Amino acid sequence: MCHPSWGRARAAAQRLSDFARLRRVRDRIDREHARPLDVEALARGADMSAGHLSRRFRLAYGMSPYAYLTARRVERATALLWHGDLTVDEVCRAVGCPSPAVFSARFTELVGMEPGAYRSARRALPEPIRNREAPAAEPHLA
What is residue 69's predicted lDDT score, i.e. its pLDDT? Predict the structure, then answer.
């Protein structure tokens, strides 16, 4: 007969193992968000079923793997639209979105405005004014 603490220890070890695999999935999404990724491929890489991965990922990170991937793509797209000279379609392709319509819908949902409007907002803002540094004060020695 097994000691009761062995079962708890085994369950704790399994949770740690699952969390390590989830972390690798999240890291892969962070690195490869511009590549074609789907939950089934992520699950295979983590040696989990797609359903198990989705449930455990949501518990650990508060969103599904697909929602996390979409958020990473939109996050990268906001930077490209704000700081770059790419068109919306070029940004869509650069961040790995499957289609311009899907990209526009998810971007609008997460950012609160369409990608083209977001890109135009950058042009409407004035350049930041840089103040000259104040002269360095003489060190005061007591």
Answer: 93
- For 24, 116, 117, 127, the CA distances from 124, given in Å and listed in that order, are 40, 13, 10, 9
Q: Which pTM was predicted?
A: 0.75
Closest CA to 118 of 57, 60, 59, 77: 77
State residue 131 phi and psi, 5-degree precision: -85, 145
Q: Would the pLDDT of 57 be above 90? A: yes
Cα–Cα distance for residue pair 62/55, rounded to 1 Å: 10
The secondary structure of 54-93, three-state, reads HHHHHHHHCCCHHHHHHHHHHHHHHHHHHHCCCCHHHHHH
Provide CB contacts within 8 A for 52, sequence distance 6+. 43
User: Residue 98 is encoded by which pair of tokens?
Assistant: 């499957």
DSSP string, 7-49: HHHHHHHHHHHHHHHHHHHHHHHHHHTTS---HHHHHHHHTS-
What's at 78, amino acid-wise? Answer: T
CB-based burial label for 59 (10 Å; 0-12, 13-18, 19+) = exposed
